[in-house]
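Contributing new complexes? Match this layout with adenosine-5'-triphosphate.
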Amino acid sequence: MSEATHEVLRLEGLRKSYYLGRPNETEVLHGIDLAIERGDFAALVGPSGSGKSTLLNLLGLLDTPTGGELTLLGRPTSGMDDAGRTALRGSAIGFVFQFHHLIQAFSALDNVLMPLMLARGRPDAEALDRARELLAAVGLARFADARPNQLSGGQQQRVAIARALVTQPALLLADEPTGNLDTRTAGEVFELFRRFNRERGCAVLLVTHDPRLSATCDRTLELVDGQLVSDAMNR
Ligand SMILES: Nc1ncnc2c1ncn2[C@@H]1O[C@H](COP(=O)(O)OP(=O)(O)OP(=O)(O)O)[C@@H](O)[C@H]1O
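Output block (do not edit by hand):
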């Protein structure tokens, strides 16, 4: 297999400005170069306001850069229209946020199925099997019919992780996924990311302010004032 086929994501000179009305253009990311490979398990750290969430939203194709190129699974995204970006995002990327954004009116199982229903419509038997298998993998097989408000914070975040993985994404992005959880539950949720990374090979990039969690990642990316100031392997 060639080097190139291991690459999930490549950023070349990625820039992002926010326009707060002329002439108030503020550049928040100043030209980021970065490659993420299959199997990477990386933490994105940096002071508040350094641009971590902005960068994660660009990586997840939730927002568009104002300069540079972002190539996802070998496909340059700068010339893509919204439909192309949405399709690529849906098939290649899973998201976990600090607040899980589960749909309260849906069962845990239906929440996990949601990304597949958006992509394919009514779930088939294979989709149902996959969602049930993921709920079991995050330890919630018994809670398939429970509504989110019947689950603890840690259980709800585990449903969100199962939902993020149901499309079998090449890249899992997580913004402070354990920021809302107590230390023990945070450790358990973090272990799930690690397990899926090892067992399924999906690259994981997570934003965390917790130095204990970032230290257990394989790689640490540090953003300061919109620039990537360090990219180091932890072991
Ligand atoms: N929609 C927006 N419009 C204008 N400026 C924004 C917008 N979103 C973010 N910014 C600015 O961009 C900068 C980076 O914000 P960002 O949320 O990416 O930082 P962060 O590193 O994730 O911070 P934190 O750790 O506090 O979440 C900040 O100065 C912020 O005020």
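Reviewers usually confirm one structural detail per submission. For this one: DSSP finds seven helices and ten strands in the chain.
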